[in-house]
Recover the amino acids of this structure.
């Protein structure tokens, strides 16, 4: 793999759409944008598995499908195992001469944060440990949006959800999010990256590198959800960009154990700017809860400094 991967707008505007426009994802949802960017970045044929979630239910409303590629759905937790079964069959067919040696097919599993951080974590870990050649993509909207905006372990500290509602007892979710990207990198796989769809060049470059990896690769992508985050559908990309500019969601990659931070804001903005744009954090700006914003800022600063230290030391 090389850093000299160039992304051109022509890579996006090609009429070859692997995900058709006729899906039923919400207006302003970042998921189809991220999926299209990934699929436009990969030139080889693809086989895709999708966990139960927003992407699955909205793109395959019986008897229709928005997918123009081979597509599999099995269960909430095991899109990684499902697509790895297809990858193992592909390798066996190649060994037996049923598929030409020079035919390259890429295998991709998509899951939301509930299917990745929580329910499917052990399945993903097993697939990575076995060394399957596939890409796992977490479409991270930071809650179980498909079933009613319940908190997941990707939900940020202080967010109000239907299972961590802000009120007299709790000021929203009381725990910090799980460090999923670091957990994936700890498997010592060839490639792991954190991305955002507002920066299509960065995301598509990382998708190309993931596809070129000799073994498993993981992309963790922030996909803002207007319904669950309580922001306007026209604000999705600006909120994703602000998450990066506040260093709440750093853009970085871990390639063969070496960490590289892909974007360092010249003017690092306070995380309060990002929180204030979303209704799920509105309660944090009451005088009684201002300490939580300060706590979140301190945690974001700590994680950012740790990431810069990892880059400086050449570690994952």
């Amino acid at each position: 793999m090389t850093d000299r991967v160039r992304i051109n707008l022509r890579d996006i505007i090609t009429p070859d759409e692997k995900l058709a426009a006729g899906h039923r994802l919400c207006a302003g949802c970042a998921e189809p944008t991220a999926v299209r960017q990934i699929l436009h970045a990969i030139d080889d044929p693809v086989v895709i598995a999708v966990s139960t979630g927003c992407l699955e239910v909205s793109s395959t409303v019986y008897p229709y499908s928005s997918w123009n590629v081979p597509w599999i759905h099995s269960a909430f937790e095991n899109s990684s195992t499902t697509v790895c079964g297809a990858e193992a069959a592909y390798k066996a067919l190649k060994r037996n001469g049923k598929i030409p040696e020079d035919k390259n097919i890429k295998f991709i599993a998509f899951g939301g944060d509930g299917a990745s951080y929580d329910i499917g974590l052990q399945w993903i870990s097993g697939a990575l440990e076995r060394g399957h050649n596939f890409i796992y993509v977490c479409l991270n909207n930071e809650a179980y949006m498909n079933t009613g905006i319940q908190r997941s372990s990707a939900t940020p500290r202080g967010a109000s959800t239907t299972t961590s509602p802000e009120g007299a007892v709790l000021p929203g979710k009381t725990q910090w999010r799980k460090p999923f990207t670091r957990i994936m990198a700890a498997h010592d796989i060839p490639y792991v990256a954190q991305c955002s769809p507002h920066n299509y060049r960065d995301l598509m470059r990382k998708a190309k590198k993931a596809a070129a990896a000799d073994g498993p690769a993981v992309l963790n992508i922030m996909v803002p959800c207007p319904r669950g985050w309580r922001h306007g559908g026209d604000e999705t990309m600006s909120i994703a960009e602000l998450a990066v500019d506040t260093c709440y969601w750093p853009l970085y990659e871990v390639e063969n154990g070496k960490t590289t931070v892909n974007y360092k804001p010249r003017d690092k903005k306070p995380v309060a700017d990002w929180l204030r744009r979303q209704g799920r954090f509105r309660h944090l700006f009451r005088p009684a809860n201002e300490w939580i914003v300060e706590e979140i800022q301190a945690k974001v600063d700590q994680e950012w400094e740790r990431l810069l230290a990892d880059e400086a030391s050449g570690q994952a």
